[in-house]
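Input/output pair, single chain:
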Amino acid sequence: MTASSPATDKTALRRQLRRARIALPPAYRAAAARAVARHAARLLKRGKRVGGYLAAGSELDLSDLLNAALWRGAAVFLPQIPRRGRRLWFTGLDGGDRWYLHPRYRILEYAGARLRAERLDVLFVPLLGIDGDGFRMGQGGGFYDSTLAFRRRHALSGKPLLVGVGFDCQLVDAVPREAWDVRLDWLLTESGLRRLPLRSPDA
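Output:
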């Protein structure tokens, strides 16, 4: 028997995590969305630049959290896929009606003033899986890997605060790691907001 390759391991784990996420009942998903908005309240401060996302497919819905950020006086920014490359822009919501679908990915985006992730104070990052050390598995497109590459060069800058967002069922023992992976700072699920790396009570 031959050992599985890292690519095969990632494919199998992505399939497993997608199935677990899709299986969550609608009522549970709605309650989880409200819970993460409550747990994140201390990060949603007036004048802060908060990056988020609009949920696609079975991702955890961040709408309650983003609305809470706006209500508290934070500036909210959403990802915008570039025409070339994979380094995301983030565009600010300003109350206008300038929504559109990305022509290739059919993802809803907003045509606002844009900036890079480096200028955000907090960035809520979508994920498919995450381990207790803070390493994230995404959908495989590489957009957040490219966007957050600066954190590998300036790991101690602490900006933006990187908060992985998902359901409890997306926490796994270990995510297959690559040289370009960036460790997240916090994990936000329906159970609460926890600093990474996670430690067992007796550690």
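The chain is about 25% helix and 25% strand. Residues 51 and 123 are 4 Å apart (CA to CA).
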